[in-house]
């Protein structure tokens, strides 16, 4: 007999439970109970698969006592007394002796990969876990906060002010800094909206280092401390930069949670869910509270998706985390008189975290910042017939304005066009506009030969006035354009340049706008 009642379990929980049952008769009873109850196809397949597994082990009477250890899983996080230690306490499966005539002394030891994903698949929340606050990893460079760090702090402040009005509880914005000489930046984070700024200083961490940064930030989130009387953060924001993407995935993995990457919209609200995988019961609707809605362009390139960190019944992954595209939000105006708590976080960092020494490196130029320009002229794959001339025409238009610069769609950056002369220096990733590039909001944005995929839209659709030039009247960019000019950019750009130089741009736009 067995106390496994399939009606009380989701399919995933049932799959874990039946792996501990070694009696096929008991499994038959579970299968009958499922058929008489909810009669879920997937659940029945899980039970039958376990029955088939046991029967295959005993075919021909070859089963031995060693088979009783097969199918065991390591204890999940909820079963370990101290989850922060990450201890793995369950016994490993016995080594296989399937090679005919193999001597016991030649048997291979279990490599620990018998069930390589089983323990992660069935991670449970901390028992009676407590989750609070919105954490913001504030990336720095050259001793200064990146703009995206300031933007995330501003958005976090806005979200948590709304959170307090909706849910109460006085939850905070916590800025997280790792590096060398971080105290002054911690104070700046308070002025920019944080309630708490926790930092770790180490001269070896002046540059981003994968292993120590991950371990330190994850330890901050898990540690017991006077300033943090909870198990893990409720929410965690990271910048969608090269280093931020690296760190966010590693930290969220360490914290047994997930990640929504490259987000450009955030909100916190309740959500009514009817998916039985999430609710546990078909046909039942359950309201999940305080869910971070993370909006990002989907992989099709034409729509937005909203990601929710909602997991199965009796399992709760926190923190709900995401990386944020630079330029998506506005930083709040710094208030030097704003008060907050600053915490210096100490942790022993083993030498083997610093096994790789960066002896020397090249420093890139300051790069191209398009975000402060009055006008951005962006070009796309429409220059394909003659990339060199197309870029030259766009640069002529840029020069006609007092404060303008050239931007590129991702299509131009990745196309490997054969460009000649001085224009070659302008075809670089640092000029890319969009989800994985810069996000700009100029008073005037001119898009020439750009189709308008959602990844590009993310980077420019907050511009005050958008003029697009395209031969395709059905191009997606037309849907979010103020003035659409049907025409070949090789013909239209020179006319726009002449009009700007003559002070007549408005007349040309009115003439060509349909």
From TrEMBL:
Disordered, as annotated region: 1-120
A Pfam family hit: ETF_alpha
InterPro entries membership: DHS-like_NAD/FAD-binding_dom, ETF_a/b_N, ETF_a/FixB, ETF_alpha_N, ETF_asu_C, Rossmann-like_a/b/a_fold
Gene3D superfamilies: HUPs (3.40.50.620), TPP-binding domain (3.40.50.1220)
Acidic residues: compositionally biased ranges: 62-87, 94-111
Any one GO molecular-function label of the UniProt entry: flavin adenine dinucleotide binding
Domain Electron transfer flavoprotein alpha/beta-subunit N-terminal, residue spans: 134-357
GO biological process: fatty acid beta-oxidation using acyl-CoA dehydrogenase
SUPFAM superfamilies assigned to the protein according to its UniProt record, in alphabetical order: Adenine nucleotide alpha hydrolases-like, DHS-like NAD/FAD-binding domain
Domain of life according to the entry: Archaea
Family stated for the protein in its record: Belongs to the ETF alpha-subunit/FixB family.
Name of the protein: Electron transfer flavoprotein alpha/beta-subunit N-terminal domain-containing protein
């Amino acid at each position: 007999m067995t106390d496994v009642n399939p009606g009380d379990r989701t399919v995933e929980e049932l799959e874990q439970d039946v792996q501990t049952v070694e009696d096929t008769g008991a499994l038959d009873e579970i299968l009958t109970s499922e058929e008489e109850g909810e009669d879920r196809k997937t659940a029945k397949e899980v039970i039958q698969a376990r029955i088939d597994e046991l029967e295959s082990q005993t075919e021909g009477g070859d089963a031995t006592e060693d088979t009783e250890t097969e199918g065991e899983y390591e204890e999940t996080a909820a079963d370990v007394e101290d989850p922060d230690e990450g201890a793995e306490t369950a016994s490993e499966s016995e080594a296989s002796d399937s090679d005919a005539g193999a001597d016991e002394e030649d048997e291979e030891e279990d490599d620990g990969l018998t069930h390589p994903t089983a323990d992660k698949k069935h991670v449970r929340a901390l028992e009676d876990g407590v989750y609070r606050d919105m954490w913001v990893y504030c990336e720095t460079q050259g001793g200064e906060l990146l703009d995206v760090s300031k933007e995330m702090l501003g958005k976090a402040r806005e979200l948590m002010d709304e959170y307090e009005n909706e849910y109460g509880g006085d939850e905070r914005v916590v800025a997280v800094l790792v590096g060398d000489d971080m105290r002054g930046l911690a104070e700046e984070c308070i002025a920019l909206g944080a309630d708490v700024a926790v930092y770790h200083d180490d001269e070896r961490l002046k540059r981003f280092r994968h292993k120590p940064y991950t371990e330190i930030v994850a330890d901050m989130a898990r540690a017991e401390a006077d300033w943090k009387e909870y198990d893990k953060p409720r929410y965690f924001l990271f910048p969608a930069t090269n280093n931020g993407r690296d760190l966010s995935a590693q930290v969220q993995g360490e914290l047994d949670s997930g990640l929504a990457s490259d987000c450009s919209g955030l909100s916190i609200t309740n959500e009514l869910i009817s998916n039985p995988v999430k609710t546990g019961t078909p046909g039942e609707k359950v309201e999940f509270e305080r869910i971070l809605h993370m909006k990002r362009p989907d992989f099709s390139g034409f729509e937005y998706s909203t990601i929710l960190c909602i997991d199965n019944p009796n399992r709760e992954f926190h923190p709900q985390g995401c990386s944020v595209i630079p330029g998506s939000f506005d930083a709040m105006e710094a208030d030097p008189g704003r008060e907050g708590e600053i915490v210096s976080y100490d942790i022993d960092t083993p030498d083997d975290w610093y096994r790789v020494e960066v002896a020397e490196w090249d420093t890139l130029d300051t790069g191209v910042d398009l975000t402060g320009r009055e006008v951005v002229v962006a070009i796309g794959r429409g220059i394909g017939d003659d990339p060199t001339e197309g870029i030259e025409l766009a640069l002529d238009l840029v020069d006609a304005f007092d404060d303008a610069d050239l931007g590129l769609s991702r299509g131009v950056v990745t196309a490997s066009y054969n460009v000649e002369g001085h224009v070659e220096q302008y075809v670089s990733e640092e000029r890319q506009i969009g989800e994985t590039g810069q996000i700009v909001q100029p008073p005037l944005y001119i898009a020439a030969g750009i189709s308008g995929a959602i990844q590009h839209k993310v980077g420019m659709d907050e511009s005050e006035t958008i003029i697009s030039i395209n031969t395709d009247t059905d191009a997606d960019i037309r849907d979010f354009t103020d003035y659409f000019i049907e025409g070949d950019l090789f013909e239209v750009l020179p006319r726009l340049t002449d009009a700007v130089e003559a002070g007549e741009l408005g007349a040309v736009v009115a003439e060509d706008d349909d």
